[in-house]
Amino acid sequence: MTKREYKPLGKLADLPEENRLVSGHRLCAGCGPAIVGRLATLAVPDRPIVINATGCLEVGTTLYPYTSWAVPWAHVTFENAAAVASGVVEALDKLSKEGRAKDAPVIAFGGDGGTFDIGLQALSGALERGERFLYICYDNEAYANTGVQRSGATPFGAATTTSPAGKVIQGKQEWKKDLVGIVAAHHIPYAATSSIAYYRDFINKVRKALSQDGPSFIHVFAPCTFGWRFDTSQTIQMAKLIVDTRIFPVFEIENGALRINFKVPNPKPVEEYLKTQRRFAHLLKPENKGLVELIQRNTDENWERLLRIEAAGKIF
Amino acid sequence: MATTQETKQKMMELTGDQAIAYGAKQAGIDFIAAYPITPQTIIVEKLSEYLADGMINARYINVESEHSAISAVIGAELAGARGFTATSSQGLALMFEELPVAAGMRQPLVMAVAMRALSAPINIHCDHSDLLSVRDQGWVMMIAENAQEAYDQTIMAFKIGEDPAVQLPVMYGIDGFIITHNMENVYTLPDEMVSSYLGVRKPMYRLDPDNPMTFGPLALYDTYFEFRRQQHDAMMNAYQVTKDVFADYERMSGRKYSPLKNYMVDDADVLIFAAGSTVGTARQAARKLREEGVKAGVSGVTLLRPFPIPEVIETFSNVKAVAVLERMASLGSPAGPHYMDLASAVYPQLDVRMYDFVYGLGGRDIDWEMIARCAKTTLSDAEHKRPNEVRFLGVRE
To answer: Can you give the pTM of this predicted structure?
Structure first.
């Protein structure tokens, strides 16, 4: 296998000058996933091959006869990005050695629906086989493309079109799936979380991930202005607040050891985050105070759990 | 091992599954992704053995489902590789979502299908419900009668699908257990003959960082229709390409292939139409019928898609009636899939009466006597101008 090694990014100007997800696409103003696509494809000097699961990032960028992708790009179906990417990396590795193709880093993008839910089996298979590609789950916490339905990544209490806040039920009743925990249980070389508010962290994680000799995975938080009901100018702010409240911890698991990248010494209360999005509006009613307390407690417990995992050293 | 004089072919004792694996090995496949399912398993086991013994220069990934198997092969094809997979029954059903995708993305992968009944009840034995259920998804489709044909079709499938005028995936079926697991004498071509015939795959378009292209875009009402129309054109091209490949292959192997395999049809009053291993049994029925003075012939289908309309019209033009044998029950349909194909092909040009018989579901045996009775019933029904009704052969009522 061609050895790839990407050092941490120096200056922003060191990024490639070409834009690889170009303007003119049909994603929403303030779209978090668009930022994920743009930053990830720019992270390394060589053009990556992109495999995209069905979802916002796919459907919004390739309305025939137009495309926004200035990298080789393929969409097959919803649940199989990891399987398609497996075929691509294996074939490229063979054909490039035979002088029949040019080798390239491979990135698969899946949304939270395409990763937490319908694509989990194909992802697990690819990780188990040790295929060398980077899977990036851009998490906007719902099936936004089809009109904001609940996914396994939708947070507790959030209202979606299939988990509405009504007179009896106050939004989604289940907690978000621990996807990175599941991924890490495959004992792959590199898994991480990131948030688009911290572009350097994300880019460097993409670089580190693509330097691995096996599978790598990044769960990146990508706010959805349309689905979460916040102003299109506030996307980065949302991506920052979720880290500042410790709801979404930013960490990486490298060769079995977890390291929290942002310690967030003075976390804001979760309410500071919840109050910014209309999907949580019902939680702020006085009668739902208990639910907000529950989210705070869950956030604190999860943080404590991560600290214990970090302290344990190499446990994955 | 025997050797034929003309082409130095090797006679090998192979099951249908082994014959497919051997053909795929010779075809210079770059990539295999597969998932085990009875009765296809011997194909993937044999390919694994070739790999373990260094006899095949391919990447092989053992995936976690048939859905991922075909997805990975589509990915490998997009990267420029020659890809192969094999499945059966529930596996093909699980792959269904990707079948029109492989065709719509114009990736010429090849897939062998060990034909087996669909659940429920679960059953591992032969019928054609799996293959025939996916007949309209844009794949070139063939059906093999025996292990020899399975071997030959494996090699021809790549040549047909990768032709620049076709660029479509190719699927071919063999009867589960009856052919997959029975050992036959199979004449195989020399390795170098197959490799010089197929060469390495030269993709027309692929994922290339130096020439970035977008595969699998969104196409709505203003463009989607044209994509399908182009696939129709490619399928029409595939008809002539397949006949050309059959002719080339005959020159190489001495074995004649045609979209329809006709037997004693020239003076026949009644034809028996069949697919798969039953074609051989039907020939025995025709011979026995002729001993009784019934002028019977057999038309076996090799090329299912594109459907060989000219051959059907030519073959059926001088017969009184056709008994159509279907190894699938098209529940609630006016007739089985073969009958619907044939009736559409001959209407309105020919005045031939056809009668439909469902047989052999879930591996139930069929013998020449049953087929002979079908032919006689067909002649009598035609004489009395009786309407067609779907009848079940050898079932306990």
So the answer is: 0.97
